[in-house]
């Protein structure tokens, strides 16, 4: 059989997009899960040795040797674990069980002089190991891969907000011309929203929790062996030492509400970026934004002139796929038949895929933002061609001056009609207002009617 490479991958994540998803390999791959399981089992073994109740003793050199099993875990080690599971290795027959294969792998690497095979996986169920190992991967994947990418986007938006704080732009509500804004202020809105979303993701990742309570969550096997040990306190200390919060009351499985919170937080961040992708796409379509052409890049296979907003389209597609996966994952992993069923096991293996679509979407959004430049002349021309948008300011000033029917007057003069700035000035000439108020009205222009948008952008 020909060795499979990226061109034979059944998923674009390991094929076309493999170069973008590489940062997640240490956290989302099968090898990574194996390594994390070894870490949990080794640290648990060492923690048992630190209990006064057990006769187990592990010296410093032996601890270093044990920890090297996961600290130096490589492809060859992963291959051994896989062989232990699927075909057997050395004295061990095939386990057909991925966690049992980890136990045998540790036995094979046991330090010289340490007879501790009976203490590996002592009193545990596979879910004790798996739920901790998965969170040891999910937590840094979110904190060190996804969040920094989100921060890059936020930083880019803040820079755009400051650079273009004073560039006036026609706003559209319901797709129709509305009170002007500035391009910088609109980017500031996204920067602010994304900042809040990032905080939610960080809090959710920081709050991931693990369980270590045995086959039904009752510590039954542990207490049967050592009834005088405070096993819940031991479990809490152990889980905390792994950098996770402790989940004290569970069935066999960790209920995974913590993962659901993280998935929802990521989906919230993705929704901000999806909104951004769609808006920027429309700004490009309206020629409010130009795009820098990439040397050698083909925009269209038939129309040579085109520079398509492909990065935002790609981001939109990947983030939509990520959100679909995140909703599914959040709904699925929080349910289990009675105390345990295995259907969640295969589902959880797809967490990395959801994260990968997030990562691709973030990178594409960054690429797109780096290419767009506001077309200030197009924006200015559009404002000049839409003088009716100062109608809001006119009717508000007239209300201030006591005109009860100000809204109706301006509506009659502007709604559904093509209006010029001169039409407004003719209306102002007939108003019963002071010269100062008339001058105030005549000074109104679409370009200057942006409120404190510039300040809002600068303060972002």
Automatic annotation (TrEMBL):
> Which parts of the sequence belong to the Adenylosuccinate lyase PurB C-terminal domain?
336-450
Identify the keywords attached in UniProt to this record, alphabetized. Answer: Lyase, Purine biosynthesis
Annotated ranges, domain Fumarate lyase N-terminal: 15-319
InterPro entries found in the cross-reference section: Fumarase/histidase_N, Fumarate_lyase_CS, Fumarate_lyase_fam, Fumarate_lyase_N, L-Aspartase-like, PurB_bact, PurB_C
In which pathway is this protein known to take part? Purine metabolism; IMP biosynthesis via de novo pathway; 5-amino-1-(5-phospho-D-ribosyl)imidazole-4-carboxamide from 5-amino-1-(5-phospho-D-ribosyl)imidazole-4-carboxylate: step 2/2; Purine metabolism; AMP biosynthesis via de novo pathway; AMP from IMP: step 2/2
Any one Gene Ontology molecular-function term assigned to this protein's record: N6-(1,2-dicarboxyethyl)AMP AMP-lyase (fumarate-forming) activity
The answer to whether keyword Flavoprotein applies is no
- One Pfam family of this chain: ASL_C
**GO biological process annotations for this chain's record?**
IMP biosynthetic process
Q: Which NCBIfam families match?
A: PRK09285.1
Q: Can you name this protein? A: Adenylosuccinate lyase
**Taxonomic source organism:** Haloarcula rubripromontorii
């Amino acid at each position: 059989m020909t060795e499979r490479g990226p061109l034979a991958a059944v998923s674009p994540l390991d094929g076309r997009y493999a170069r973008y998803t590489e940062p997640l390999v240490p956290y989302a791959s099968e090898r990574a899960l194996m390594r994390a399981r070894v870490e949990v089992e080794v640290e648990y073994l060492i923690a048992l040795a630190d209990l006064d109740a057990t006769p187990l003793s592990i010296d410093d050199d032996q601890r270093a040797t044990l920890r090297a099993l996961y600290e130096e875990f490589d492809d060859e080690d992963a291959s051994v674990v896989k062989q232990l599971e699927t075909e057997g290795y050395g004295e061990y027959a095939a386990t057909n069980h991925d966690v049992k294969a980890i136990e045998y792998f540790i036995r094979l690497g046991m330090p010289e002089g340490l007879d501790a095979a009976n203490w590996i996986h002592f009193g545990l169920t596979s879910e004790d190991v798996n739920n901790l190992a998965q969170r040891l991967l999910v937590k840094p994947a979110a904190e060190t891969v996804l969040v920094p990418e989100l921060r890059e986007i936020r930083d880019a938006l803040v820079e755009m907000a400051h650079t273009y704080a004073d560039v006036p732009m026609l706003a559209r509500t319901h797709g129709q011309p509305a009170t002007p804004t500035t391009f910088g202020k609109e980017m500031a809105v996204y920067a602010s929203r994304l900042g809040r979303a990032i905080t939610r993701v960080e809090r959710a990742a920081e709050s991931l929790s693990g369980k270590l309570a045995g086959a039904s969550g009752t510590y039954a096997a542990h207490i049967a062996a050592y009834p005088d040990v405070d096993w819940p306190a031991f479990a809490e200390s152990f889980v905390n030492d792994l950098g996770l919060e402790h989940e004290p009351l569970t069935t066999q499985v960790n209920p995974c509400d913590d993962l659901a919170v993280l998935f929802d937080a990521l989906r919230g961040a993705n929704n901000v970026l999806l909104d951004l992708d769609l808006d920027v796409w429309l700004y490009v379509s309206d020629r409010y934004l130009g795009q820098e052409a990439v040397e050698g890049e083909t925009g269209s296979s038939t129309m040579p002139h085109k520079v398509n907003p492909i990065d935002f389209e790609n981001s939109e597609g990947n983030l939509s796929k990520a959100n679909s996966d995140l909703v599914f994952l959040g709904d699925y992993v929080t349910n289990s038949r009675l105390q345990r069923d295995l259907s969640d096991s295969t589902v959880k293996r797809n967490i990395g895929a959801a994260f990968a679509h997030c990562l691709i979407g973030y990178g594409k959004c960054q690429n797109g933002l780096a290419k767009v430049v506001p077309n200030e002349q197009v924006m200015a021309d559009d404002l000049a061609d839409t003088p009716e948008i100062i109608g809001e300011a006119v009717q508000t000033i007239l209300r201030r001056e006591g005109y009860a029917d100000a809204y109706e007057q301006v509506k009659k003069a502007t709604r559904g009609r093509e209006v010029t700035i001169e039409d407004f000035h003719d209306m102002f000439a007939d108003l019963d207002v002071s010269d100062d108020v008339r001058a105030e009205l005549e000074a109104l222009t679409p370009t200057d009617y942006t409120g404190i948008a510039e300040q809002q952008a600068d303060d972002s």
